[in-house]
């Protein structure tokens, strides 16, 4: 299954030269008093420059949140105009192998690397929003997106791949119990009320919202 969607992806002094394997993380972000926003997608870190990160998300105003808290810091936050799509389902890795000629080395869950798809270097990650086996790819401004999609369609033609939209992805997300900002929680929700309390490290050094979380109802 392929679900096409746009991303509010952006990064701190972002560079898209992912020539080495890197790792992704899912993150939860909260305001001073509540959950507020969440990083839905990934955090991509370039190991050759630990000061550069690529945040990609869907719902929630993390872009505004990050810019607000960047005040007084030596940091640049920009939007690289990247669109995220995903190939999900039991044959998804077979489709990637057919499209790239071979699977990337050590392409385990949360891995991130760059592969050649139809003559174009494309960032791919072992992530998804469906709780299925799958991967995502990132279309950047310099890519020929029509050629990229045509190449992937040819690779998946004999493997049962269908092009589906956001509704299909959201149905699978709901079935899997994956939360969505704006519909499953909002700016009044605490991580505990959203069932995300296990991700709160109360022993961690001071962070935004720590005092409010310590006083919040954890029942």
Layout of secondary structure:
Blueprint lengths: L1 E3 L5 E3 L9 E2 L3 E3 L7 E3 L2 E4 L7 E4 L5 H8 L7 E2 L4 E6 L3 H9 L10 E7 L2 E6 L8 E6 L5 H12 L6 E2 L1 H11 L33 H6 L4
Parallel strand pairs: 1-13
Antiparallel strand pairs: 1-9, 2-7, 2-8, 3-10, 4-5, 6-7, 9-12, 10-11, 11-12
Helix pairs in contact: 2-3
Q: Could you explain the architecture of this structure?
A:
The chain is an alpha+beta fold and 219 residues long. The protein has helices at 62-69, 92-100, 145-156, 166-176, 210-215; strands spanning 2-4, 10-12, 22-23, 27-29, 37-39, 42-45, 53-56, 77-78, 83-88, 111-117, 120-125, 134-139, 163-164. The chain has a single domain, classed as Gyrase A, domain 2. It is built from five helices and 13 strands. The strands form three sheets. Strands 3-10-11-12-9-1-13 form a seven-stranded mixed β-sheet, with helices on both faces. The protein has a four-stranded antiparallel β-sheet with strand order 6-7-2-8, with helices on one face. α2 (92-100) crosses α3. Mean pLDDT is 79; it is low at 1-21 and 37-43.
